[in-house]
Specification:
CATH superfamily: NAD(P)-binding Rossmann-like Domain
Largest sheet: 8 strands, parallel
Order of helices and strands: EHHHEHEHEEHHEHEEHEEEHEEHEHH
Distance between the termini: 38 Å
Strand content: 5-15%
Helix content: 25-40%
Structural class: alpha/beta
Number of strands: 14
Number of domains: 1
CATH class: Alpha Beta
């Protein structure tokens, strides 16, 4: 009989009692109570914005999609807003091209994953493994591609849980490299960050993959960047010593449907304000410049690097078009005048857990990723229009 989306708790096997209870009717266990719980309470189909994005992503001829046919792809941090688009894309390929893909999503928070993937409840091609990425992998074998995206990316956690932030990036990457080695995987992709570049001598110049500045390891905010640097070093080492086909993507200011609106990043705050119909509060003069990349654009880049990038190398993924924080706030308000929002100025409240970066603005040199045929095409207005529409 068809079986539904599997939620495998850490430490369980394919015939254990916990998994039988997590399955829909599968000929072994019984129908899970949770399927009745979330059928009527959560979204049972993709949001139209996401559906249109997936159609556009899958239509990109620059990606050699046939390399994924009949493959099994493991994605860590799968319910996070960035990797979730990779999950959705792979399953969309199954729907439209009979790609024969199997997707395994590793998540730490099973409840959050159930909410994010409620519309995938009855899929036979998608399994969720609930475990901490720092623990030994407890999911299925036969993994052809590993995408390691699990990480605490929100700056508010750098002060709340710096140890966990560092350990997740370091130990988690090691665990996933072990999975790739054991399974003799065809590809390994690490999600890294532009934070690895540190404090550059000329922060206004385009940042190439080879350009690095210092980081202060005794500054608690460095926990994220140092963890990502260590993860990249692990990838390079395992590539050289064990032949792991590891590649790295360095992200910068990615936004889109599904992002958490309470994670403390300024653009998420702005979107949350418009969705709630309240004024956007500025805690600075808004003069800082930032380059923002829409999630659908970034997702294409991820697949390009995974499938067609050079092993043992890193690629910048982002935008080279900058906008001031103030202009972004005004643009977002202007996109939805019926929400009645305007921009307010307010001083930062003492004790705010968000730690603002003291680095000056900068943007990526995208020459390397462009050599694979990628170009960011969705501009700020269109990208944030889609993002906000996905919440209202």
């Amino acid at each position: 009989m068809p079986r539904g989306l599997i939620f495998r708790p850490s430490g369980t096997g394919p015939h254990s009692a916990p998994e039988r209870l997590a399955n829909a009717t599968n000929g072994v266990g019984t129908e899970a109570p949770r399927t009745r719980l979330w059928r009527n309470q959560l979204r049972t189909e993709r949001h139209p914005v996401v559906q249109r994005d997936l159609e556009w992503i899958a239509a990109q001829s620059s990606v050699d999609w046939k390399l994924l046919r009949n493959k099994t792809v493991l994605i860590t941090g799968a319910s996070g807003f960035v990797p979730a688009y990779m999950v959705e894309t792979l399953l969309y390929l199954n729907e439209t091209t009979q790609a024969g893909l199997r997707v395994v999503g590793l998540v730490r928070n099973g409840n959050r994953a159930r909410k994010r993937f409620a519309h995938l409840e009855f899929r036979r091609d998608f399994e969720v493994v609930v475990q901490d990425v720092k623990d030994p992998y407890s999911g299925p074998d036969g993994i052809d591609y590993v995408v390691h995206a699990a990480s605490q990316a929100s700056p508010k956690y750098y002060s709340i849980d710096p140890a966990g932030t560092l350990e997740g990036n370091l130990v988690g990457t090691l665990r996933m490299l072990e999975v790739a080695k054991i399974n003799e995987s065809e590809g390994f992709l690490l999600f890294s960050s532009g934070e690895v570049y540190g404090k550059l001598q000329d922060p206004t110049a385009p940042i190439a993959e080879s350009g690095f500045g210092p980081l202060d390891p005794m500054n608690v905010r460095s926990c994220y960047a140092e963890g990502k640097r260590a993860g990249e070093a692990l990838c390079a080492s395992w590539h050289q010593q064990y032949g792991i086909p590891a590649k790295v993507v360095r992200l910068s200011h990615t936004y889109g449907p599904g992002m958490r609106l309470d994670d403390g990043r300024v653009f998420a705050d702005f979107v949350a304000d418009v969705v709630a119909g309240r004024n956007i509060v500025m805690k600075s003069d808004g003069s800082a410049l930032r380059p923002f990349c829409y999630l659908a654009d970034a997702t294409i880049a991820f697949f390009l690097v995974l499938l067609q990038g050079k092993t043992g190398e890193a690629y910048n993924v982002g935008s080279d078009r900058e906008i001031s924080i103030l202009e972004l706030a005004e643009t977002i308000c202007d996109l939805f005048p019926n929400r009645g929002c305007r921009v307010e100025r307010r001083e930062r409240i003492p004790g705010d857990p968000y730690l603002p970066s003291k680095q000056s603005a900068g943007h990526f040199d995208l020459s390397k990723i462009r050599s694979l045929g990628w170009e960011p095409t969705i501009d700020i207005r269109e990208g944030f229009r889609r993002t906000i529409e996905s919440y209202i």
